Amino acid sequence: MAGLRLSWREEAKKKVAWKAVELVKDGWIVGLGSGSTAAYAIFFLGKRVKEEKLDVLVVPTSYQSFFLAVKEKIPVTSLDEHPKLNLTIDGADEVDKNLNMIKGGGAALTREKIVGFASEKYVIIIDETKLVDKLGLNMPIPVEVLPFATSVVINKLKETWKNVKIREGKGKVGPIITDNGNFIVDVYCGGIENPEKVNNKIRSIPGVVETGLFIKMADLVYVGKKDGKIEVLTKT
Ligand code: 5RP
User: Quick check: 177 and 183 in contact, CB under 8 A?
Assistant: First the structure.
C-alpha cells in the first residue's frame, strides 16, 4: 500500500475507506463489501484489528473479500452464526441523489444486497465519479440469473430493453460464473426514470436471483472528492 504515488481517485477511495472503518466499534459484526474501494476498507480494518486489538467478526460478500479478510487476519463469521450485523462497508458503481445505487460491477451484487439488508447501518464508499443525476446512463444494470433460466430471462428482458448481454469472463472463455454459481446478465437501459419500478419489474421474472439496483438501502455515503475533501450524504 505504501510507496507509489496514487491517482486522485485511489487517494479518494483510501480516504473514504478509512473514514468508514473509523465507525467500527469493539465487539461489532461487520459486513465486508467487494471491489477495489471495499478492499481498502478491509486493509484498514485489518490494521485496526492488529494495532488496536479491535475485537470484530466480519461477513465477507465475495471470495475476494473473504480472502482479503483472511490475509489481514480478521476473524470471519457467517450469516448463520450472525444474521444481524452492526455495519456493512461497501463500494458502488453509481449512486444518485436519493442514495439509490447500481452495484454489481464486480458481480457480487446478491451477497452484497443480502449483507447490506442484514445490517443496522449500510455505509457506501465511493469517489465522486460514481455520483450521477440518473442511474443507468453510463452502465448496465447487472442481473444475477440462474443458468437454467438464462434464455427465458433474456427473452423477457428484451421485450423492454433491446441491449441485454450475458457478461463474458476475462481469463475464462464463456460467461462469468458468480460466487453463487450463476450468470450475470447486463441490461443496458440508457437511463432509469424510476429505479424502484425497474427493480421490481426485473425481479418479477422467474429465474432472476437478484438485481444490481439497490433501492433505499444505503444509510450513509462517503464521497471522496478530487480536491481531497469528503462529502457525506445521508438518507433523508
Ligand atoms: C461489486 C460491487 C462493487 O462495490 C462496485 O463494483 C464498486 O467497485 P469499485 O470500488 O472497485 O469501483 O458492486 O459487485
Answer: yes
Regarding the beta carbon of 106 and ligand 1, being less than 6 Å apart is answered yes
pLDDT tens readout for residues 46-86: 999 999 999 999 999 999 999 999 999 999 999 999 999 99
Q: Does 168 lie in the same domain as 150? A: yes
What is the total count of domains within the chain?
Answer: 2
Cell matching residue 130: 460514481
Please, what is the angle between helix 63-71 and helix 36-52, to 10°? 30
Ligand 1 touching residue 91 (CB < 6 A): yes
DSSP structure class, residue 59: E
What DSSP string runs through 121-149?
EEEEEEEGGGB-SSTTSSSPEEEEE-GGG
Is residue 112 annotated as part of the catalytic site, yes or no? Answer: yes
Q: What is the Cα–Cα distance from 98 to 127, expressed in whole angstroms?
A: 17
Enter the pTM of the model.
Answer: 0.96
The range of the structural domain enclosing residue 22 comes to 8-132+216-226
Mean pLDDT taken over the chain: 97
- Check which CATH number belongs to the domain holding 103 and give it: 3.40.50.1360
On whether both 51 and 161 belong to a single domain, the answer is no
Residue pair 115/56 in contact (Cβ under 8 Å)? The answer is: no
Among the listed residues 22, 52, 112, 144, the single catalytic one is: 112
Same domain? 204 vs 110: no
Is 147 within 8 Å of 183 (Cβ atoms)? yes
Domain CATH for 184 = 3.30.70.260
